[in-house]
Design goal:
The protein is α/β, with parallel strands linked by helices. The chain has twelve helices and ten strands. Strands 1-2-4-6-7-8-9-10 form an eight-stranded parallel beta barrel, surrounded by five helices. A two-stranded parallel sheet has the order 3-5. Helix 1 links the parallel strand 1 and strand 2. The two termini are 19 Å apart. This is Hyaluronidase.
Length: 321
């Protein structure tokens, strides 16, 4: 597996709502300085929802696993077949009943992860699972409810944090793999809470191995340009510790038992060199000096579209050199 501090990854979306990512598409990502791919199965409608029947949870798992089984032969036939892979777990709906009962989905995540392991070994072999399958990715991008700060002394009293912690135990102890998360930095009405909750998980828990933060400026607008510097400081500190909007370490700073290596989730789309050029260039300028100091993951939209945009692929490749 790659050194986590030097991981250079891309979010890859396949399956329901996206269409199948094929080997020919994957081949166009080869040689672009990417060593790891975070595979997301299905769009945001493929998610766990407490308001739905328990049979709907089975539907979500089955849809996701079917999408994975369709994708893995394409991966095996591509030039990326010996690159590293994370697979995301299903999203959680952000409605109140789901958030208040997030930890009730633990058994569903457990069943899903077992089926992921079986599918990967069946399609790619035990060697790939042992050496190239890095772990699982927590796809829900914030700690909910957004309007509340989680407890510094007892963070797992928040159901979502308890769920994260329980999944983490499975990832590390049952599967001996890594657990990754790419939450967004604060914006909107509850931006301070979002930052605090992200920072507390990063600075004061042993839940995640990798946390790559989305600065949110690219898609949320100029009011959040300052997030670039705040995310940079969170990565560049020694020891690494997520800082708040005043550049102070969240929740008293990092404790010795905290495990997360902090990096950045870069953001781009087709407009990176036209209407979003200012934002894109600001990301490059902000993070070019820390390419080898922390893990980097790119969000660049759907793969079907990305592989047709050679200019964006060139820009990503150049940044990762």
């Amino acid at each position: 597996m790659p050194n986590l501090k030097e991981m250079k990854a891309l979010h890859l979306y396949t399956g329901e709502g996206y269409g199948l990512v094929t080997s020919s598409m994957l081949n166009k990502l080869y040689g672009r300085n990417l060593d790891t791919f975070v595979v997301h199965l299905g769009d945001q409608n493929v998610r766990f929802d407490y308001q739905q029947s328990t049979s709907d949870r089975t539907r979500v798992i089955n849809q996701s696993i079917n999408d994975l089984k369709a994708f893995l032969p394409e991966w095996a036939a591509s030039k990326l077949s010996r690159k590293q892979m994370f697979v995301s777990v299903p999203l959680l709906h952000n409605n109140t009943s789901t958030i208040e009962n997030a930890d009730a989905f633990y058994s569903n995540f457990r069943d899903y992860m077992k089926q992921v392991k079986d599918a990967v070994i069946n399609a790619l072999g035990q060697r790939f699972w042992d050496n190239d399958f890095c772990g699982f990715y927590f796809r829900t991008e914030a700690v909910y409810p957004l309007q509340e700060k989680i407890s510094r002394s007892n963070p797992t009293s928040t159901p979502m944090v308890k769920l994260m912690n329980d999944i983490s135990y499975l990832v590390r102890n049952t599967y001996e793999k890594q657990f990754m998360w790419c939450p967004y930095y604060g914006y909107g009405t509850y931006k301070d809470n979002i930052i605090y909750n992200l920072g507390l998980v990063a600075n004061r828990t042993n839940i995640f191995d990798i946390i790559c933060i989305q600065p949110a400026y690219y898609f949320q607008g100029s009011a959040y340009k300052g997030n670039l510097r705040l995310v940079f400081d969170s990565i560049n500190d020694d020891p690494q510790e997520v800082v708040d909007a005043d550049r102070n370490p969240v929740a008293g700073g990092r404790i010795d038992s905290a495990t997360a290596i902090v990096g950045v989730n870069m953001e781009a789309n087709d407009y990176f060199n036209t209407s979003k050029k200012t934002e894109f260039d600001a990301y490059i300028d902000a993070f070019m000096d820390i390419v080898d100091m922390g893990p980097i993951v790119w969000y660049a939209g759907g793969i079907r579209n990305l592989v047709q945009n050679s200019q964006l692929l060139d820009a990503i490749e150049d940044f990762l050199m």
